[in-house]
Description:
Elements: H1 2-7, H2 12-38, E1 43-47, E2 53-56, H3 58-64, H4 68-71, H5 83-100, E3 102-111, E4 117-128, E5 134-143, H6 145-178, E6 191-197, E7 207-213, E8 219-226, H7 230-250, H8 254-268, E9 277-286, E10 293-300, E11 305-308, E12 314-317, E13 334-340, E14 345-349, H9 369-380, H10 385-399, E15 407-413
Antiparallel strand pairs: 1-2, 1-5, 3-4, 4-5, 6-15, 7-8, 8-9, 9-10, 10-13, 11-12, 11-14, 14-15
Helix pairs in contact: 7-8
Amino acid sequence: MCETxxxxxxxxxxxxxxxxEQAQFSALLEDSAEDLYEHAPCGYLSTxxxxxxxxxxxxxxxxxxxxxxxxxxxKHFSDLLTVGGRLYHETHFAxxxxxxxEINGIALELKAADGARLPVLVTSTVKTGSDGxxxxxxxxxxxxxxxxxxxxxxxxxxxxxxxxxxxxQVLATTLQQTLLPPALVDVPGLDVAAHYHIASVDQVGGDxxxxxxxxxxxxxxxxGDVCGKGAAAAAITSLARYTLRAAAVYDPDPVxxxxxxxxxxxxxxxxxDPRFCTVVFGLLTPDPDRGxxxxxxxxxxxxxxLLMRADGTADFLPTPGGQLIGVLRDAHIAxxxxxxxxxxxxxxxxxxxxxxxxxxxxxxxxxxGDDALLDFGRALAPTTASSTISAVRDLLDTFGSxxxxxxxxxxxxxxxxxxxxxx
Length: 423
């Protein structure tokens, strides 16, 4: 039985098997470590403290197209850099490495044997001896060609996006200008000023205004705000402007003018995508007996106009019951009349002003509001059309990004007659 065991390999010969496997495994590990260094997916090199190359792996040699004997003991690490990289190495890289003992992820370009440039990311550490004194510098080099290509493509895409954004901004600005009168008409005995505050240069707003002559001694004015932004709002704005002007020529009564606009919008946009607007239309006629102007205003759901009087008081002109234009087939139109005496100023505005945020955080509940605007008008009165527009523009500027919607402003002022001394 013992002999059978010996024959089956149970003696000293059988004990040598694990020893041989251990030796082979150890040899394999040593070979794998060297192979990993030489053929790693990144470049390795070791340099003396003065930068002379002491060791370099096959991967980096293949990237650069050099033979080992071309570099080891003959070249410095900085010799592999481009002119700009060499300057950066001397002024930043090397000094930081000496101070910190390591430096990570620095973007450089290496110069290959054929003159080509290789974008890389470099990490270097200083190896020290047991006494803490520096012995050599170990550097790891990562191929950044794919990353550079990605960054180049990203920059190209960004430039194209910027160009497209600029093109759209020019288009939006041009389109916005076509929706506003190039200049307000000159009304004898009346000073007029207007302003359009754009909340976003990327989108066309839906606010509009105009002042135009009708019959002899009569002028029409309007100011409105279409729901929404963009091309759809611009289409409604254009339709509203031309409808209002045409309707006023046919029948200048303010109620009839807004009634016509309501019929057109309700007829054209009564499907799945209804469109509507708020608008105020006014009819101006001079008052030769008392001076100033007689004004009849009709409002379709629009914020009330602000009257700043010559005596320093100010109040809103209420138009109760005025309904949005374009929603209902037969909208109720509210009217009010006022005599603009010399020294009075009337301000019409869209709700971008009163809906603006005054706090530091957009989207909060800190709206400017009607009460604040009324206090603003009372502090401003008496005033002129140009002074009113200038003051409101400054006010809007203080809100900054808090103005989320475009704001249209139209101010009309009956000037005081010149004094005897001025004559």
